[in-house]
């Protein structure tokens, strides 16, 4: 290729991405923080729940290429806990959504706060290195009055 020729087609290639409406919040489910049939008091309240996965993979909104990240959700429940299978389906719905790292992290926090109404929650996404740059995004929520 000489300097006069156009770049190869691969440089201009872009994969289709889905919009934010593909994020499936309807699949999320919950269960009660305390079992109704367990009458013994739970010492040491409140508890903190930590959920982690290294399979979070939305896509770059510009190129459509996958972004692989480790996601950690850390929360103190008020009344409800997120059911893990439903959370996995929810996170998988990001698979073809074009969304920046920062927006994806904040969106997961917003959706889970709306679902659970926790006392506090922190979502941290540690995305794989791209072009020598690692991105770690942390979004936090604390319930009013806490």
From TrEMBL:
Coiled coil: none annotated. Pathway: tRNA modification; tRNA-queuosine biosynthesis. It is found in: Cytoplasm. It catalyses: 7-aminomethyl-7-carbaguanine + 2 NADP(+) = 7-cyano-7-carbaguanine + 2 NADPH + 3 H(+). GO terms for biological process: tRNA queuosine(34) biosynthetic process. SUPFAM superfamilies: Tetrahydrobiopterin biosynthesis enzymes-like (SSF55620). The keyword NADP applies. It comes from the Bacteria. Substrate binds at residues 82-84, 101-102. Catalyzes the NADPH-dependent reduction of 7-cyano-7-deazaguanine (preQ0) to 7-aminomethyl-7-deazaguanine (preQ1). HAMAP family: QueF_type1 (MF_00818). Belongs to the GTP cyclohydrolase I family. QueF type 1 subfamily. This is NADPH-dependent 7-cyano-7-deazaguanine reductase. It comes from Deinococcus yavapaiensis KR-236. The gene is queF.
């Amino acid at each position: 290729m000489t300097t006069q020729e156009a770049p190869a087609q691969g440089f201009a290639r872009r994969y289709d991405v889905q919009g934010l409406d593909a994020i499936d919040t309807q699949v999320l489910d919950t269960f009660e923080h305390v079992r109704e049939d367990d009458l013994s008091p739970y010492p040491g309240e409140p508890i903190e729940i930590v959920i982690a996965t290294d399979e979070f993979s939305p896509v770059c909104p510009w190129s459509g290429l996958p972004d692989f990240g480790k996601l950690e959700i850390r929360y103190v429940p008020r009344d409800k806990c997120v059911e893990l299978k439903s959370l996995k389906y929810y996170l998988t719905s990001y698979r073809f959504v074009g969304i920046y790292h920062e927006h994806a992290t904040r969106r997961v926090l917003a959706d889970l706060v709306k679902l659970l109404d926790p006392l506090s929650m922190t979502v941290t996404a540690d995305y794989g290195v791209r072009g020598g740059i690692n991105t770690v995004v942390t979004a936090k929520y604390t319930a009013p009055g806490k």
